[in-house]
Amino acid sequence: MGRTSTARDRLRDSACELLHTRGYAAVGVAEICARADVRKGSFYHFFESKQALTIEVIDTHWQAQRAAWRERLGGPEPAAGRLQRLIMWLVETQREAQQATGRIDGCLLGNLAIELSNQETAVQQRLTAAFDEQAELVHANLTEGAQDGSVAAEYADLATARAVVAQIEGAVLLAKLAGDTRSLDNLWPHVRRLVTVPSRR
To answer: DNA-binding region(s): which residue ranges (predicted)?
Structure first.
């Protein structure tokens, strides 16, 4: 039996790293192939274009992220506490990345969404689908929170869930712009204000 080639995986993993740190326009097929140690001629055996590779990167990245989101939003504790756990994990992910690399790369999906907002329709559609899934996961959490009393019932809707996702993406973007994750310290308090009724004294 012949040895299974890992070239496709190497191309995808290399593209994921380069797209995350450099962006779509700044990275070409030749550089991806060089990073993956795959001949450029072999690239088109696996992917018809850089766009096709980018779509697979998005799908693979979100598949792993989706599992992590579901894990952190699951459990027996009140839903607001589970949402806080997700937020704190997302913040810690950015901090750990900065400690490891000395920079803040932000969110791969968010970075691509900003860069490709008016181009690459197929990529846009994949990104939209991923963000829609994020909002649906948060919406399910808010619905459970309305039932257990940890989330205000009037905020347990899809519009609020989308606002939570937007709050996360915006906060990560600003932290990346500033090169400082300390601004993320306030992310959960801000999200909490979106989904709970202020206590009355």
So the answer is: 28-47
| DSSP state letter for 117 | T
Arithmetic mean of pLDDT, 166-188: 95
Q: Distance between CA 82 and CA 84 in Å, rounded? A: 5
Counting Cα atoms < 13 Å in the Cβ hemisphere of 34 gives: 6
Is residue 7 exposed (0-12), middle (13-18) or buried (19+ Cβ within 10 Å)?
middle
Name the residue with tokens 């959960």. Answer: 188
The two counts, helices (H) then strands (E), for the chain are 9, 0
Amino acid (1-letter code) at residue 152: A
For domain 50-195, give the fold.
Answer: Tetracycline Repressor; domain 2 (1.10.357)
Task: From 169, 16, 31, 21, select the one nearest 103 (Cα to Cα).
Answer: 21
Per the CB < 8 A criterion, the answer to whether 62 and 125 are in contact is: no
> What per-residue confidence (pLDDT) applies to 134?
98
Kindly state the average pLDDT of the residues 121-136: 96
